[in-house]
Design brief:
The protein is of the alpha+beta class and 491 residues long. It contains 15 helices and 13 strands. The strands form three sheets. The chain has an eight-stranded mixed sheet, sandwiched between helices. Strands 1-3-2 form a three-stranded mixed sheet. The radius of gyration is 21 Å and the shape is globular.
Length: 491
């Protein structure tokens, strides 16, 4: 019999539209897998009732029988990140402050995915307010890694990455501020794409001018699925004035197989000449992934960033504290908030209280100079490559790594510094599954940063990469062992 949950999303869509399988069968297969695995992984939260979801899938079947398809996602189950509005579902942001907050409308990205036929079945778990790349919170608890339940899944899109890796979802959405798509994708052996700033507009939003460091985007098990989901999520909206004017599907043919890599110039930035501390083995795994691209014709050159990374870190702190501090300030106005908000969020707020407009403008000038510098770098190279993470997945019970390779981390997020470069420049960045720790069950990712608005180029590379390493990408997470059947560990 056909293993429905093992199908890539594009193959699943074709099977649904050819009536090889029904939408009801798809929903039942995924619900069966969710009920078996989710108690151990806690990746999907606020799950709707089976009865309601099966009724919705039967309605999708009736539509197909009448010759009507809503789109590529027709009949597919979706669980959206818990900071995204989905009508009728809780939107907790992983915070006890919003435990009972029920969305009265769909966010723009969710509305687009539903319009393409997707059925929202629940939400995916995340850290409180999305802060810190480690998925745990006081509402739902932690989400362990898909490959080893004793270590972190990453975050903040950790629930999405685990649900995808464990085939509880065919595709997943996430968001990325400081690697929140790239980090969990790397640690769970799936693809994650942070789109260009403005590619996937966000609405509703309290600010449509400055809050552009974070962006929503797709996660998938194949490059084609990643591209197809991005095509649905992207496109301009009049309510979001900084959205990219053209739709992504104008830029990529959505075909498999990728393109010839001869002539592709990749700058391997590695650890920025020793500036970024790295766990042993991560650089080597990424270099092996680059070697595979080189065998297909790419020219890989070890290159310096050429811009003071400490200056960038200082600018990053200012931008992050300005954006997050103002958001936490709104939360602190709620009754009892100071006792319910996690210390890392309170720290962001406290730091923001010392910021002045002069500091912010200087940080903005640094961003501008860095962007101009990267444009010059892209005259010599087509793609910039970095590790997607600086550490291997760490123990689930730790809040964050306090040191890397003997170097102390001076903030709760310094260990994710490798992700800030694409974010600050507003550039697209794709995390490729690169390989594994010598223990065989901690994945790592290679981060590829592309030119402005050139997601298509990154997806071409990813599609070609799939043809080069089918054995690597075909590895699935191990089955749960007997001693892992007790459910999710609690803090």
């Amino acid at each position: 019999m056909l293993d429905i949950t093992a199908l890539a999303a594009d193959a699943l869509s074709r099977a649904i539209h050819s009536r090889q399988i029904s939408c009801r069968e798809v929903m039942q297969a995924y619900l069966t897998r969710i009920h078996r695995l989710n108690p151990h992984y806690n990746a999907i939260v606020s799950l709707a009732s089976d009865q309601d979801l099966l009724l919705q899938s039967e309605e999708r079947d009736r539509e197909l029988s009448q010759g009507h398809s809503r789109g590529w996602l027709h009949g597919m189950p979706l669980a959206v990140k818990d900071n995204v509005l989905a009508l009728g579902f809780p939107t907790t942001h992983g915070s006890a402050l919003f435990r009972n907050s029920i969305a009265q409308q769909d966010g723009l990205m969710v509305a687009r995915m539903k319009a393409a036929g997707g059925i929202v079945i629940g939400k995916t778990n995340m850290p409180e307010f999305g802060l810190g790349s480690h998925t745990f919170n006081e509402v739902f608890g932690p989400t362990p890694n898909a490959w080893d339940t004793s270590v972190s899944a990453g975050g903040s899109s950790g629930g999405a990455a685990v649900a995808l890796a464990q085939r509880m979802l065919p595709v997943a959405d996430g968001s990325d501020f400081m690697g929140s798509l790239r980090n969990p994708a790397a640690w769970n052996h799936v693809f994650g794409l942070r789109p260009s700033q403005g590619r996937v507009p966000q609405w509703p939003a309290s600010d449509v001018w400055l809050s552009q460091l974070a962006t929503e985007g797709p996660m998938a098990r194949t490059a084609l699925d990643l591209a197809r989901l991005l095509a649905i999520q992207s496109g301009p909206d009049a309510r979001t004035p900084l959205a990219i004017a053209n739709s992504f599907d104008e830029n990529w043919s959505l075909t498999t197989g990728g393109k010839d890599l001869h002539g592709l110039r990749i700058a391997w930035l590695a650890d920025l000449e020793g500036y970024l501390p790295m766990d042993d083995g991560l650089l080597m795994v990424c270099e092996l992934a680059l070697q595979n691209l080189a065998k297909a014709g790419a020219e890989v050159t070890l290159a310096p960033l050429g811009f003071d990374p400490q200056q960038l870190w200082s600018a990053w702190l200012v931008w992050r504290q300005a954006l997050i501090g103002s958001r936490v300030a709104d939360y602190l106005a709620l009754p009892g908030a100071s006792d319910l908000i996690k210390p890392e969020a309170l720290w962001e707020y406290e730091q923001s209280q010392h910021l002045g407009i002069g500091q912010f403008m200087q940080a903005s000038k640094t961003r501008s100079a860095f962007y101009a510098h990267l444009l010059k770098l892209f005259e010599r190279f087509d793609v910039l490559a970095l590790p997607a993470t600086q550490v291997w997945p760490f123990p689930l019970r730790e809040r964050w790594p306090h040191a890397i390779a003997g170097r102390k981390m001076d903030t709760y997020h310094r260990w994710m510094e490798v992700t800030i470069y694409a974010t600050l420049a507003g550039l697209p960045a794709l995390s490729l599954p690169a390989g594994f720790h010598p223990n065989g069950h901690w994945p790592a990712g290679l981060q590829l940063i592309g030119r402005p608005h050139q997601e298509s180029s990154l997806l071409d590379i990813a599609a070609t990469y799939e043809t080069l390493v089918p054995e690597l990408l075909g590895i699935r997470p191990p089955e749960l062992k007997e001693n892992q059947q007790r459910g999710v560990q609690q803090f």
